[in-house]
Every structure is written in C-alpha cells, then in structure tokens.
Amino acid sequence: MEAKTPVAPAKGGALVQSKIGGVKNAGLVILGCLVIAVCLFLFVFGAPGHFTLEDGSTPEGVSSMWFWDDAQGKYHPHDLIGTIFKGGIIVPVLQCLFLTVIVLSVERYIALRSAKGSGNIAKFVAAVKVKLEKNDIAGAQELCKKQKGSVAAVVSAALVRYEEMDKNTVLTKEQKVLALQKEVEEATAMEMPSLQQNLPIVATMTTLGTLVGLLGTVIGMIKSFQALSASGAPDSTELSTGISEALVNTAFGIGTGALAVISYNYFTNKIDNLTYAIDEIGFSIVQTFQATH
User: Fold this and answer.
1) Of 57, 113, 227, 268, which has the fewest CB atoms closer than 10 Å, so is most exposed?
2) Which pLDDT tens digit goes with each residue over 128-171?
C-alpha cells in the first residue's frame, strides 16, 4: 500500500512529496504469517512421507501426522523436515515470528529505497548547496523534483519557506531564521514516522523469538525428563521426542532473534544516514539565509 505523505502544507510554491510505500497494518502481516506457518507445520513438515512406522512402512490415510492416532502405531521422522515437525506446537509460533521478520524486512527495504530517492544522496546534498550559494532557489527545487524521496521532500519544504522569508518585510532577521529552522524540524518530524514504521515490531521480535524458543526448549526438556523418570527402562521414543522438541525450538528461536537483530540494525543505520543528510542540508539552508540576509 503506497501513500503520498506531504511534508508541509503548500505555501505559495510547489512542494516535492515523498512517496514512501509500506504496510500500514502490521497485525494483518502477523496474522497472515501465522496462517502460513500453521499450514506449513501441518501439511509440509507433518506430511506422512517424512515419517516411518515401527514396521518400516509409511503412514497412510492422513494428510498430516498431527491427526495420526498412536493406536495405529508409533511413527518416527526419517529426515530433517520430519524432525522439525516433532518440535511440537511451539514450532508454528516460531515460524510465524520468523516469517514476520522476513516480510517486514522486505517491506522496510522497499520503503527505504523509495525514501532514499532516485539518485545519490551525497551528490544531491552537494548540488543543492551549490544552488544555494548562487541563490538559485528555483534550480534547487528542480533538483528536489528529480531526486524525490524524504530528503528532497524536506529540502523542498524548507526552500518554499526560504522564498517566503526572503519576500517577507515584516519579520526581523532572527524571526525569519527561527521560522526557517522550525520548517526544517517540522518537515523532518513528518517524515520520520514513515521511515521508522514497523521497525518497533522487528525490534520486539529480537527478544520475543528468543523467549518463545526458550519456552519450547523447556517444554521439550520436561518431556525428556518425564520419559527418564518413568518406572522401568526409559522410553527411548519419548526421550528422543522431547530432545528433538527442545533442540528444534532452540534453533528456531535463535534464528529468529538473530535475523531480527540484523534487520533492525541494518534499517536503523539506513534511517540514520537519511537523517544525517537532512540535518546537513537543513543546516546549510539556514546558514545560507543568515549569510545572505
């Protein structure tokens, strides 16, 4: 879903608008990922073809081993996919978290590419500075129209205010400078929510994924110790099932947490670079105005 986000109301000049696409309702993403995760767990990881019965045959008559009646015979996984299924009910929850991190990471990547604009930000900032030194506001606006993105949107809003202050004969120089600074700050503040959208959810997954994985690990170990504490010889099947559940959930939890940390830090760094560029060009606009008025 793509929305046009104006950085400021029109003030006598044409403003460049940032067009940052993005998912506005992350709850729907999580719900969709949960449905996909449950279907994968039941019908892909739990497909009968990944398991064998005690007599060496393949289970038949069910679409998923989740619906298998143990009275028909105990079953064992014969590959990694089947082993993941033995991880238990926590597995689809972890898969949901993992898929959510992937989807939101792709969404943020696309959104921040749009926010970056069509050209190199460093070159754009340098070119705008050159135009400002020549007092060529119209030329700077043209650069903003070509660049697009969040930085160009903030610069465009500041340039519109710059022209207004240039023509204003009522306010003092200090008041004009303050008005220009305020415009840059307001334009930046209006861009930030679109840039940071959904990142708090990714940050939450860094901890949530690890904790849910730990929960699955504890549940699996409890089953293992229950098998060991049974009277007589320990049930090797129950013991291995518990250990499998513990290790599978541990792996998924660590994987989810690691991916979320990498994703969050990567996109935070991208946003910081955009913010630094906005601060730099905003400072240049204000300084130019002070020096020339």
Assistant:
1) 57
2) 989 988 888 899 999 999 998 899 999 999 999 998 988 888 88
